[in-house]
Amino acid sequence: MTDTTNPTARAAEQHHQAPLVPVAVAYGDGIGPEIMRATLRVLEAAGARIETHEIEVGESVYLRGVSSGIGEDAWDVLRRTGVLLKAPITTPQGGGYKSLNVTMRKTLGLYANVRPTRALAPFVPTTHPDMDLVIVRENEEDLYAGIEHRQTREVYQCLKIVTRDGCERIVRYAFEYARAHGRKRVTCLTKDNIMKFTDGLFHAVFDEVAAEYPDVAHDHMIIDIGTARVATRPEKFDVIVTLNLYGDILSDVAAEVAGSVGLAGSSNVGLHAAMFEAVHGSAPDIAGRDIANPSGLLNAATLMLTHVGQQDVAATIQNAWLRTLEDGMHTADIAGERTKQVLGTQAFADAVIERLGQTPQVLTAAAAGESGRIRLDVPKKRAPIAKRLVGVDVFLDWDDADRKPDVLGERLSAAATAGLRLTMISNRGVKVWPHGHEETTLTDHWRCRFEGSGDVTNRDVLALLASVEAAGLEFVKTEGLYEFDGKPGYSMGQGQ
Ligand code: NAI
Q1: pLDDT tens figures, 58-69
Q2: Which residue from 33, 165, 276, 426 could staple onto 27, CB 3.0 to 4.6 Å apart?
Q3: At residue 17, does pLDDT exceed 90?
Q4: 459 and 427 in a common domain
Q5: Residue 12: CA count within 13 A, CB half-sphere
């Protein structure tokens, strides 16, 4: 029986009685099963209050003909648990298979990809021993919408989709994360000097949201210099928030600079679910040999424990793991000057288990802070915005032998209708009519801008397209030119 007058015994009793958190677990492919076994052994020994439910995803599912790599039964478990610890999976070579990661992120709305990257010098060699940053990457939008088309013989395009709510969610997440983890600064990285609408929106939303967090410092850098600084002065950064593609590249740069790409875990977090995994892949070259480093998945598991409110267990595991590294107990991939013993996967897990309850002597110990799951409000509905059609960009596939913009200008001016007149032609974004420059490289893809003098309707656009078609010109797509609350929702041509 528990002595309820003894606070330690009382805490242990409460701890014992806390309900187990159901967690889906995917053993993955290649080294997946062995690093997952090692990780779960450490979690169990550390007293993680979780109940695991195995799901099958990855290669075996792909090879059964399920192109997404995940079956309906697995989705059911995921919907029930809302939390997944996932080992890496192998995507079979050849066409037809979809990225399971992208499918899961988008289906479950896992909008935030969070990658803490910390140097472990001198135990893992790095030129930046004080580096300790977190990259919060938008996970669902941007060029990863995967909307690509070949429009002409020469021109291919990929649509960059960015939404206000998507920007607000990720930026807010970054500030909430900074607060919850006692971090002091959030840096936003964009390329809004070039992409004034998409990246410009991300930056503008960042400035708006930052004003609500006066206790957290904030700044903005253009992504190119920002990435260069992460590579050369990473210790100057704290939390970074950025768009999907930049975050993807930057997090690998950061992991490499920390010297620990194989050690990093990451979380993919949404409003209803979260997925935790190592940064690396399934390493088929070393699978089944008990030499893989389980640290990436173990770190992902500690992020998961923090997410489900078990920061105490997460800190215990982190500290034992740091102590194991300090003691020179290393797997082969990180073996170096400080290594005393090279251990296999399971022996490394045993070494961590032996050190549960110990803390690192040199590296900064993890603390079981308040930082649990970050809760975010779904963005509020906004005031109505007046939208008005003022013109249309008609994209042509035109491959006249001479590619003379003035010839096209003349033909299109003649085809213009009463409602819409030709105001500009650009080629790969550069204005080539009126008054283009002979030096400009020309392709077979022409953006022809037509603007109305008053309100324009879709009927005007259809009449224009019929006229362009009758003039023997081939349109491949159109983009409406809209004003929102009187402000243009489209960019000018370069040189316009
Ligand atoms: P990889 O990360 O699996 O391996 C790259 C190199 O790092 C290999 O030499 C490997 O032996 C080594 N390595 C990786 N993890 C290690 C660990 N824990 N301990 C020791 N050494 C480790 O990348 P690769 O070879 O490009 O991809 C292999 C497969 O993994 C592919 O099918 C790919 O699609 C998949 N993949 C899956 C991911 C996921 O499920 N999240 C992420 C990245 C790749």
Answers
A1: 988 998 888 888
A2: 33
A3: no
A4: yes
A5: 9
Task: Classify residue 363 as exposed, middle or buried by CB count within 10 Å of its CB (0-12, 13-18, 19+).
Answer: buried
Quote the CA–CA distance of 153 and 394 in Å, as a whole number. 17
Domain match, 270 and 368 both: yes
Q: Are 117 and 254 in contact (CB under 8 A)?
A: yes
Whether residue 64 sits in one domain with residue 149? no
Q: Give pLDDT, residue 336.
A: 86
The count of structural domains within the chain is: 3
- If asked whether residues 367 and 396 sit together in one domain, one would say no
Nearest to 30 by CA among 280, 263, 285: 285
Instruction: Decide: 406 and 456 in contact? Cβ < 8 Å.
Output: no
Q: Rounded to whole angstroms, how far apart are CA atoms 458 and 389? A: 8
What is residue 2's predicted lDDT score, i.e. its pLDDT? Answer: 38
User: Ligand 1: residues whose CB is within 6 Å?
Assistant: 31, 88-91, 101, 262, 277, 280-286, 292-293, 296, 333
Cβ neighbours around 51 below 10 Å, total: 11
Distance (Å) from CA 52 to ligand 1 centroid: 24
Of the candidates 337, 372, 407, which is a domain's last residue?
372
DSSP state of 20: P
Domain of 152: which CATH number? 3.40.50
Q: What is the DSSP letter of 127?
A: S
User: Which residue do the tokens 């990246």 mark?
Assistant: 199
Measured CA distances, 385 to 27, 164, 208, 382, 441 (Å): 48, 13, 18, 8, 39
CATH number for position 41: 3.40.718.10
Atom of ligand 1 nearest to the CA of 90: 32
What is the predicted pLDDT for the residue at 371? Answer: 53
Evaluate whether 425 touches 412 at the Cβ level (below 8 Å).
yes
Give the residue, by CA position, lying nearest to ligand 1 atom 23: 281
pLDDT at residue 40 tops 70 = yes
Between strands 445-451 and 387-397, the pairing is antiparallel
